[in-house]
Amino acid sequence: MRSLFRLAAGCAAVLAASACGTPPPPAAPAAAPRPVPAAAPARVTAETARGLGADELGRVPVLMYHRITDRPKSVYERTPADFTAELERLAAENYVPVTTADLVARRLDLPAGAHPVVLTFDDGDPSVFTLTPQGQPAPGTAVRILLDVAAAHPAFRPVASLYVNESPFGGDERALRWLAEHHFEIGNHTRRHTNLRSATESAATAAIVEGDGLIRQAVPGYQPATLALPYGAQPRHRELALRGAGYSYGGVLLVGAGPAPSPCSQDFDPVAIPRIRSQSTGTDANYGSTHWLDVLASPTGRRYTSDGDPATVAYPRSESAPAPACASVGLAY
Prior knowledge:
8 helices; globular
C-alpha cells in the first residue's frame, strides 16, 4: 500500500512540473528504518532462582483424556463441567500448557514461577474436537472449552497433544489441518489402536507406520513427533516405539499413573513417559489428576517450577545433578 501511495504522489509531481514546462526534481531515496535491537533476556542467578523456588528438575503432570460427555460411563470420560473445572484449577495454580513435543525437546520457555502441564487426548473422539460447518471448534468439545478458558486466562496457552487413529474426529478432513494451523500437536496412536505388545515386531512396525502415514497424508508437510501407546502397551523391543523404518519420534507416552520426570532429569526415559488419568473421584482416584495435582502443590511435591530463563536449568542443590544433555546449563542453588 505504501509503494502505491508513493507511485501516485510521483505521478502528481510529474504532471504538475510538465504544466510549468520544467522537469520534476529527482526523488530523494527513502531512508531504511534502523532495526531495533532485541532486548537481552534477563539471566537468572542462584539468588533469584532460590527466591522463585525454581526447580527445573521437578515433576511434570502429563494429563490423559479420552472423551467429554454429560454422562460418563467409565473413568476415561469426563463431563464438560469437570473438564472446565480442571483447566480452571490449572490456570489458577500457574500451570502453562505445553505439548508432548515441547516436553521431549526441552522447549519449556515459561514465565518465572510457572509450571508446565501437558494435556493429551487419545483416540480422536468427536467429543474432544469437532468443527462446525463454519470451521470453528464446536461448543462443548474439549478444544472449545480449552480455548474459552485460555481466553479468560491469557497466560494459559491453548495447546494440547491429540493422538489419533483412523478417521479421527468423525472423519472430518478439515480437522487435522485446523489443529496443525492452530499449534496443537497431532500425535500417532496407530491406525487401528493396535496392542503393540501382543503384535509381532513386523506387525507393530506396520501399525506405527500406518498411523504416521495417515497424519502426513491429512496434513502435507507435518511430521509427527511423538507416539501414545494404545493400552499403554510397549512393543517387545521398547526402542521400536521410538524409531523404525519410516518413522522416528522424540517421545513415547504410557498410560501411567503418576507425573513425568523433567526432561532434564536423569530419570527421564523418552520411551516410557508416564501420564496421569484425569479423574477426581471413584475407583483408583488416588492415581487420578486431582490427587496428583494436590501432591504436586504440596511443599514436598517436587513440581517443575520455571526459573524464567530458557538458557539455564535451575534446581535445588539437594537434588541429583541434571542429565548429561542439560549438565552444561545447570544452575544449582
